[in-house]
Amino acid sequence: MNSGRGSNGSACIVGAFEHPTRKAPDKSVAQLHAESAAGALADAGLQHSDIDGYFCGGDAPGLGPISMLDYLNLRVRYFDATELGGASYLVHVAHAAEAIAAGKCSVALITCAGRPRSEGVAVGTKPAVGNPAQPDRQWEIPYGAILANMYGMCAARHMHEFGTTSEQLAWIKVAASHHAQHNPLAMLREVVTVEDVLASPMIADPLHRLDCCVISDGGGALIVARPEIARTLKRPRVKVIGTGEAVKGQMGGMVDLTYSGAAWSGPRAFAQAGVVPADIKYVSIYDSFTITVLLQLEDLGFCAKGKGGSFVADGNLISGVGKLPFNTDGGGLCNNHPANRGGMTKIIEAVRQLRGEAHPAVQVPNCDLALAQGTGGSLGTRHGSATLIMERE
Amino acid sequence: MNTAQGASRKIPRPEMNPETQPFWDAAALGKLLVRRCLDCGKVHWYPRSRCPFCFSGNTEWQPGSGRGTIYTFSIMRRVPVPYAVAYVTLEEGPTMLTNIVDCELDRIRIGQAVELRFIPCEGGGALPAFTPVFATDFPSVAATPTAHP
């Protein structure tokens, strides 16, 4: 039923690995990248010597691909260090697929890793550090603009314009916790209720502690390969059929926090894939905060703008209960958020779902079409957005 | 009433550069500047030398009215001294990131009219911030920028 969809059937995700650690004080960041890479190669059934393309983001230590390719001792013919914060890895999959289609490489490795938990980086609430060459941050840092209150402002405006409630936002966390209970590696496995979320301390109005994601060490890696190579491997094939990317900011002062860059990256990915939101069986949605999920679901067209609150309520995102199962690993809200970058794990769980390898309690039946959505930076100021649509071949 | 929350929070001095130094020099003297494009006529935020709308380099600093309305805000609670960040839509058009100060934090609302205040930075300089105007007859458009003649 799905053959021939999309114009970018030129690459498959053939290897995916989520590093099991959640706290790694005894490992280096480069080591976590390498361990993740080894895991993805083993998953794919490929060798170190098969890799001829490499992709990394700003979490790669040193001089990006220069340091990492030397550390990993890889001699590749194509690389890309596009930095889009937590959304980087979704862009890397898109760019790897394009590079493969262009004949620039055949087996691309993408890695992500970091140790913010061991290093004590409370990224959501710590004071930011400025740099005079950065054009934007001098207008923000002195005001105490940090991630939590910038996302708080998005939530406050959404509530003001559309009547969204804290209870509705809390349902996003509740759904994530229902999934995380089945993930032995998840940092927060306890099922929580709407009341639990509302009773947790207020961090930045209207976001409570349980509206925020976890801080964890860890990492992950993916292998994207030419279809001819994918067909020689034993793993189920996950085809990349649609990709989109965008950057949205303050637009010269025409600030509108009611939508995210997903409103631009999403339609690009859907158009390329030749599918519509109603076709999607499973979604991985970047979940730095509950409001992040709500905005992106609306922007991707899973519900109308402003209707996200009622859409996510009453368990609609819980696998086996609602209409749109999301983040069945527990996501950033409950499972992990390696390197403060949730894009990698979003792709990995979507791959598990498409392979039928998610936990049986959360596996979506006949999951042949999935979407992963990432944002990097801050929805309250400026951010990158990337959308990936994948199909089981 | 928490009147000192703006001043008692340690505020780092902005990391200015040659393009933005005139703004911060004026702010240190209690004056808000905005950047207007002389070709398309629009004021943008944050200020830059080249108009982000029409990309003309024909822009100049002008005194800002210092009046606006709160587009959104968030009160940071998980800190020793809670404070309010906000986006304020200026009378001149654009929306700027700022703080709401000199008021009870729990009385801040989206849509409130606000007027200019300056809050001192550590080591000199000052930040333009805003405080709610609770009068109901606040004019939406000012004939002249009276805050900084």
Offer a quick outline of the entry.
The complex is a heterodimer of chains A (393) and B (149). Chain A has 393 residues and is an alpha/beta fold. Chain A has twelve helices and eleven strands.
What does it look like?
The complex is a heterodimer of chains A (393) and B (149). With 393 residues, chain A is of the alpha/beta class. Chain A contains twelve helices and eleven strands. In chain A, strand 5 and strand 6 form a beta hairpin. In chain A, helix 5 (166-180) crosses helix 9. Mean pLDDT of chain A is 95; it is low at 1-8. Chain B is mainly β. Chain B contains two helices and eight strands; from the N terminus they run H-H-E-E-E-E-E-E-E-E. Chain B has helices at residues 5-8, 21-28, and strands at residues 33-37, 43-44, 59-63, 67-76, 83-90, 95-100, 113-120, 126-132. In chain B, strands 6-5-4-7-8 form a five-stranded antiparallel β-sheet. In chain B, a hairpin with a 6-residue loop joins strand 4 and strand 5 (83-90). The N and C termini of chain B lie far apart (31 Å). The relative contact order of chain B is 0.22. The model of chain B is unreliable at 1-7 and 137-149 (pLDDT under 50). The chains are: A alpha/beta (393), B mainly beta (149). The interface between A and B is large, with 44 and 44 residues.
